[in-house]
Design a protein that fits this description.
It is globular, with a radius of gyration of 19 Å. α3 (about 95-110) packs across α4. The protein is α/β, with parallel strands linked by helices. It is built from ten helices and eight strands. The protein has one domain: Alpha/Beta hydrolase fold, catalytic domain (Rossmann fold), CATH 3.40.50.1820. A six-stranded parallel β-sheet has the order 4-1-5-6-7-8, with helices on both faces. The protein has a two-stranded antiparallel ribbon with strand order 2-3. β7, α9 (about 235-250) and β8 (about 255-265) form a beta-alpha-beta unit. The protein starts with 6 loop residues before the first strand and ends with a helix.
Length: about 290
C-alpha cells in the first residue's frame, strides 16, 4: 500500500439493509454469525459505515407471522440493526444528495487529504459508482458487490415495472411527513406496515429514476465488480444473468476496469461466504499495494 496515502473505506449498504450485515451474517436465526470481513478490511483502512435514515423504516415494521416476530425481536434486542431515526425528506432520497451528504460527513470526521475506497452492495453499488464519479480525484478504488446490472436497458425495463402512481401519494414533503408521523406514533400495526410498504415503493421508484438520470457508461476510477451468477435462475435471476453479461461487455475496453469477477450461486450478501470475502479483501490489497 502507498504509505503516503491515508485510506478511508466508505461502505454503502443494500436496499433496506443495515451496516451490521457487513459484520454479521443473517441466516434466519436469532443469533447472527460473526464474519471477519470488517476485521480484515480494518487492516487496510479506516472504515466509514452508516445507515440511511429511510431504511430505518424497518425499525417500525412488524412481520405478519408470529415466528418471524419472535425472531426479529430477538435480533433487534441484541444487535440493533436499525434506529428509530426516520427523519428524511423527498430530496434525501436522491442519489447525488446521498453522495454529497456522505462525502461531507466523511470529510468532517476524518479531515482533508484522504483517499477513498468505496464499496457498494446491491442498491449501494449504484451509489458507489456515482460517488466515484463525483469525487474521482479522491477515490482510488470502487468495488461493486452484486449491484443492479449497470446497463441502461436494464434500468429502463425495471423502471417500467415500478408503481409510478406512488408519486401521486407523495407529491411533497408534507405528505411524506404525515406518513412518517403515523409510522412513529400509531399503534395500528397494519396501518404502519402499509405505509412503510408505500414509502419503500416510493424509494424504489425514485431509485430507478436516479439510476437513469445519473447513468454513465464510463468508469471514472479503478473499479472491480463482484457479480453473482445463478446456475439455475428463476424469475428476476434470469434478467440478472442476462444483463450482467451486457454489463461485463460494456466495460471490457474501459481502462478503469480492474476485474469482473463471477461468483456462482452464493447468497446475495456475497461476503458471507469466506472465499468470496477473502477474494474481495485480496483484490483491494492488490490494487492498493
Amino acid at each position: 500500500m502507498d504509505n503516503k496515502k491515508e485510506y478511508i473505506t466508505i461502505l454503502f449498504n443494500g436496499f433496506g439493509s443495515s451496516k451490521i450485515f457487513w459484520k454479521y451474517a443473517f441466516e434466519n436465526k436469532p443469533l447472527l454469525r460473526k464474519i471477519d470481513f470488517l476485521d480484515k478490511l480494518k487492516n487496510i483502512s479506516k472504515i466509514y459505515s452508516f445507515n440511511l435514515p429511510f431504511f430505518n423504516l424497518n425499525y417500525y415494521s412488524r412481520p405478519n407471522n408470529k415466528k418471524d416476530k419472535v425472531l426479529w425481536k430477538k435480533i433487534y434486542d441484541k444487535y440493533h440493526p436499525h434506529s428509530s431515526d426516520i427523519n428524511f425528506l423527498l430530496e434525501d432520497l436522491d442519489y447525488k444528495k446521498i453522495c454529497e451528504k456522505v462525502y461531507n460527513s466523511v470529510k468532517q470526521k476524518y479531515g482533508d487529504n484522504k483517499k477513498y475506497i468505496v464499496i457498494g452492495h446491491s442498491y449501494g453499488g449504484s451509489i458507489a459508482l456515482l460517488f466515484s464519479k463525483l469525487y474521482k480525484k479522491e477515490c482510488d478504488l470502487c468495488c461493486c458487490i452484486d449491484n443492479p446490472p449497470h446497463v441502461l436497458s436494464f434500468y429502463n425495463k425495471h423502471n417500467d415495472k415500478q408503481d409510478k402512481d406512488i408519486i401521486k401519494k407523495y407529491p411533497n414533503n408534507n405528505a411524506l411527513k404525515k406518513s412518517i408521523n403515523i409510522i412513529k406514533n400509531s399503534n395500528n400495526i397494519k396501518e404502519k406496515n402499509n405505509l412503510i410498504n408505500d414509502i419503500y415503493k416510493l424509494i424504489s421508484y425514485k431509485s430507478c429514476q436516479d439510476r437513469i438520470k445519473y447513468y454513465n457508461k464510463k468508469l471514472y476510477v479503478p473499479t472491480v465488480f463482484f457479480r453473482l451468477y445463478y446456475s439455475n435462475p428463476v424469475s428476476f435471476q434470469k434478467d440478472w444473468n442476462k444483463y450482467s453479461k451486457e454489463e461485463k461487455k460494456l466495460f471490457e475496453n474501459d481502462k478503469n476496469m480492474i476485474n469482473y469477477i463471477i461468483m456462482k450461486d452464493l447468497n446475495h450478501f456475497m461476503w458471507y461466504d469466506q472465499k468470496c470475502s477473502d477474494k474481495i479483501i485480496e483484490t483491494i490489497r492488490q490494487k492498493l499495494f
